[in-house]
Write a structure and sequence with these properties.
CATH class of the largest domain: Alpha Beta
Strand content: 5-15%
CATH architecture of the largest domain: Alpha-Beta Barrel
Mean pLDDT: 93
Distance between the termini: 139 Å
Number of strands: 8
Largest sheet: 6 strands, parallel
Oligomer: single chain
Bound molecules: zinc ion
Length: 299
């Protein structure tokens, strides 16, 4: 009897335990399902937010791409307008050959006064190093006119010419700290006849081809100030020569000289500039893209 009582209690305890475990498992499972659902819906929300953000970003991207395209179109349009304007513009390239000299600073001061940049086709003048530096510091272009300007030397052979040009390049680089651009003016111009007596009639043709192959852009001129036609030309002749010569051209490459005796070139310069301004010219220094008058028809 006592034994069965104990057995009965044992059985009851066991069924309580089973019930408890059952309830525990049920509650646990429900809890897990609720937890999992919450996590899933949270992840889903985050996912949707990300999808929205990606869509927004794609929209922004399309808008930015369109904006870039519009800006590129505008830039191209402006570039074309600028090119057309530039090709129609009257541009005067003031060039000063054979310097520097005792007149260089006066020329630079006048150019500064009018805020004009010019081109100096220099030679090698030892002792005047500071003037090359001054030309560059004031924003002008230094270009090559050979070191010696000695016709008998430079026009005796292509090798001599090149050696003299390179000598000047080195000299300019050592005095100014910068190698000059490959802009060249042949002493006496590309069609000079002085070279004939040293190397014959075909020499300039050969030399011009050779220097062009070396990457040089050479410039003759289409407006002559005639300041080299006399030891000291009359100021009025210089002014008239430039202003008459420039009347019928759209791009004026003006030949002047920066040499000690050429004081009237300095005196004429303000009138030359003002006269060119009255003819609607603007002023630029030479670059490799600038208008290039060429006397010699190279074969
Ligand atoms: Zn010269």
């Amino acid at each position: 009897m006592r034994k069965s009582y104990y057995n009965h209690r044992k059985k009851r305890r066991a069924s309580f335990l089973s019930l408890f475990i059952f309830l525990f498992l049920i509650t646990g499972s429900i809890g897990y399902v609720v937890y999992a659902q919450t996590t899933v819906s949270k992840a889903k929300k985050e996912y949707n937010l990300l999808v929205d953000k990606i869509n927004d970003a794609e929209k922004d991207n399309i808008e930015i791409t369109n904006n870039i395209k519009n800006l590129e179109d505008t830039v191209n349009e402006k570039n074309n307008e600028y090119e057309i304007m530039l090709s129609k513009a009257k541009i005067a390239y003031l060039t000063f050959d054979d310097g520097p000299s005792s007149n260089t600073l006066a020329i630079l001061d006048i150019l500064d006064k009018y805020n004009i940049k010019a081109t100096f086709f220099v030679n090698g003048h030892e002792g005047l190093e500071h003037l090359y530096k001054e030309i560059v510091n004031r924003g002008h272009v230094i270009a090559n006119h050979t070191f010696s300007h000695d016709y008998s030397y430079v026009y005796s052979s292509v090798e001599n010419f090149k050696e003299d040009v390179n000598k000047l390049n080195d000299f300019i680089e050592s005095t100014t700290g910068t190698a000059p651009a490959k802009l060249l003016r042949f002493p006496g111009g590309s069609n000079n006849q002085v070279s004939w007596s040293y190397s014959g009639k075909g020499f300039m043709n050969e030399l011009v081809k050779d220097m062009t192959n070396e990457g040089y852009n050479y410039f003759d001129w289409n407006v002559d100030s005639k300041d080299a036609n006399a030891y000291r030309q009359k100021k009025d002749v210089i002014v008239k020569s430039v202003l008459n010569g420039a009347k019928y051209v759209q791009k004026a490459n003006v030949l002047m000289h920066d040499l000690g005796p050429k004081t009237t070139t300095v005196e004429a310069l303000p009138e030359v500039i003002e006269g060119l301004i009255s003819q609607d010219f603007i002023f630029d220094p030479l670059t490799e893209d600038a208008y290039k008058p060429h006397f010699l028809k190279v074969k």
